[in-house]
Amino acid sequence: MNVNDFDWKTYLENYEDLRKAGIITKEKAYLHWIIYGRKEGRTDKKKVKVIQPAPVHIYKFSELPLIIKNYVVHNKLQDRVFYTGKVPFDVYNEIISACDIGIQIRPGNGGGLSGSVVDCLSLDVPIITGKDIVDSLDIDHPMLMGLDLTKYNDWIPILHDYNYSDSLTKDISSLLLQFIDNKKRGVSIINNNNKISDIVNSRFENYAKLFIDTLSLKPIDKIAFVTPYPPDFCGIADFTSSTIDKLSQYVAHIDIFTDANVEGNNFYHIDDIVHKFKDYSNVIFVVGNSNFHTKVIMYLKNLGGACILHDEHLYHLYKYLGKIQNNSIIDYNKEIPRCFDEIIHSDPLIVHSKKLQNIIKNVYNKDTKYIPFCSFNKLRKFENDELRRIKAKYRIDGDINVIVNGRFKYPFHVLKISQFLQKYNVKCKIFFVGS
What we know:
By secondary structure, this protein is of the alpha/beta class. The chain is about 40% helix and about 15% strand.
């Protein structure tokens, strides 16, 4: 190589030690290369920096709960079933994002699934659930698949019993096999012009404003919530916390009355609402289907006020109060409304389901206010490169990867699906995220 073809500037850029030694001209650089550089393997060509990918940290899942572990071991599903327990928000977000599809099926009296379903939909993860959940969300979209559970007469939804419906297992498995086939053929049910995440996430932005309009709230108003609140392990506690956080942008003063162990200038014990009730322009009682709401309903009945009714029925709450026998089966078309007797006088009564709105109107001849349900979990979407890293981190590498997120109580129907798909040589991985 002659001196005119030698790229002396790049040569010096490549080697800091030469610059420090005072070699800073074309002649000196070329002379160094002739005498030493070429023997040492030095080059005047630009070096391409190879960025090594960061090592992937493999996540360590928690030990399976005993009732799940026994089933998994007996049916040789150890490489297909994973459990996190209660996890930080970022882990919850990542695993949902990287899975192919969600399954949220409980017996009709289960309820309480809407938040878990909406979390999946907000990330464009399709989900299979019960028709009652689809009806309650008032969303018509191919990514939200609802099964009519009333047609599965052989389904015995008992927590410690493996005798779940074979026909339900086959029907859900058929949907998963179709999903796998579409995935292989490159067929997607995600339509960029009609993403379900856009529908769900827009509800989040509108919820606080609709709430303010419904109650005719003004910035100067002083309002109170009577509600479960974190650290209570209750989905409605989380939802209310996020609601109040958003409302505080529009309303100057909000106090919280709760049984939860929480301290702060705006927090009071739930019993204090009795003598402070008249201090507020609006008192909102937050009611859901669990024993966390026992005192909430009691004070709502005695004091009156506005009510946010989150669930389509109060089966578990009324069972806890002894108003419904443990083994009773509810015919939702006939018997659900009796669970609303003690809150029906609320003014206004706010519901998240048009179906429930119609039931209350037909049975009680009472008008309710409707605000569409939304999730206040602001989950992050990941780019493809990030998703590949996440999949490796959590070993989300089955033929199909199913997310069961939230507070699951009836896991065996999902385990049966993974077991059933073994017959088709399909590796169906199940990820239980939550507790």
